[in-house]
Amino acid sequence: MSPELKNKIVTKMFAEAEELGWVYLSSDQRSAIYGRWLDDPEVGGRLREFMGDARARVWIKESPMKEYARARYGVGGYAKYVANPLSGAEDLVKRALGPDWEVVPGKRGIKPLRVRVRRGEEERYFTWAPSEQLKHLVWAAIKAEVFGDATPWILCVVSSFEKPIPSDEQATNIKIAARCQLEIVHVDAL
Prior knowledge:
Distance between the termini: 34 Å
Helix content: 40-55%
Order of helices and strands: HHHHHHEEEHEHE
Shape: elongated
């Protein structure tokens, strides 16, 4: 597939994903959209020129859409396809923690998205995702500690204006984080 065709397909999918609130959709809703994209002559129709239906669905799911959440924050090779990227990590850190915190250059990670942040001599990992992905943030923080990294973690649960996190869910998130001795903040994405 040519870079131009890939650009056209992924740009179309990402624009539709943004419009649909992809990161907040259930697995069943996402699956239905994969089917719709396969039926779309500009997406599935073009992909079929290079691969069959099964491979096209796998490519859609495991290539661009697997990277979509990271790309929205300007992270990874698919970031260039996002028309309206969200606040970068620096802005998110400032909104979540305040102006005294800064991102440590060159200390970014993925799976889950995270940066190292500091305030004076104090350093922590700052990781973020929608509420539905909180378990991955918790697991990454616990796993890091188990493998000897004593750096504290701050878990940032990001919601949207269209789909704010209900107060009872925020309270549950805070209880889970407290049980695991982790710090958690809730922030609305811009």
